Amino acid sequence: MNRLTAYWQVVRLCSMTIGYSLFGLSFSWFDKDHKLFYEHGLNFAKTSLRMANINLVVEGQENLVEGETYVFVANHVSIFDIPAIWVATAPKLGGRIRIIYKRTLQLIPFLGWELMVSPFIPIEREKMRRSVEGINKAVSAIQSGDSVIIFAEGTRSRSGRLKEFKRGGFHLAARAKKPLVPVAIVDAHKILRADSVDIQEGTIRVIIGKPVPPPEQDDRIVERSLMKHLHAVVASMLPEEQQPL
């Protein structure tokens, strides 16, 4: 793809994002149960993948049970991870899935404003008290029937290789008493590499593993053991070039 075409594709995606954000803001004041948000957001996710010429391949949907609520634990390699997981889990969850995101994303015009009124859950990793508030909100969301996605590495892996997990997501799982589902996102880092605007056509594979029971008690040692186990499971689902060094 030449430079001009690459920039034009980015402009199209940004314009589409602004349009969807403004439309979402227009009905947010009366969409109290977020039904419209989830329908609108799922459509946005599908449109994002289609406009970027991304083919989505999903494996393991049979591991999910309709009506169940989960804590998804996924690796994070691309801005397309969220639409990919959203679309991949929609057939079983109806699109009702919340993402935990960095509060600083709210500073992005249009998209950030939509995030502020969305059911998604902001956290501030640098401020423990605010992070606890985010965990509490996530627990409430799960108890009300929404699943939650945790990008357990904390930040996006620029190399595509799996990094170490952070404990926060597993503390959430212990409190929520819901199954954890390992998710491997394969080849998304090849679609849009770090510090680049050149979106490559390609395929993203989302591999949904078998649910793992939550820890029976909210205990730091148990949570760390579960964290190591899930890290090993996600690593085993990834191709060699994305496995940790």
Which descriptors apply to this entry?
245 residues; Glycerol-3-phosphate (1)-acyltransferase; 7 strands; 16% strand; 7 helices; alpha/beta
Q: How would you describe the overall organization of this protein?
A:
There is one protein chain. By secondary structure, this protein is of the alpha/beta class. The chain has one domain (3-242): Glycerol-3-phosphate (1)-acyltransferase. Helices cover 43% and strands 16% of the residues. It is built from seven helices and seven strands, in the order H-H-E-E-H-E-H-E-H-E-H-E-E-H. The protein has helices spanning 3-27, 35-51, 81-93, 111-117, 128-143, 168-176, 220-237, and strands at 54-59, 71-74, 97-102, 121-123, 147-151, 180-186, 202-208. It has a seven-stranded mixed β-sheet, with helices on both faces. Helix 1 (3-27) runs parallel beside helix 4 (111-117) and helix 5 packs parallel to helix 6 (168-176). The chain is globular and about 55 Å long. The mean pLDDT is 87.
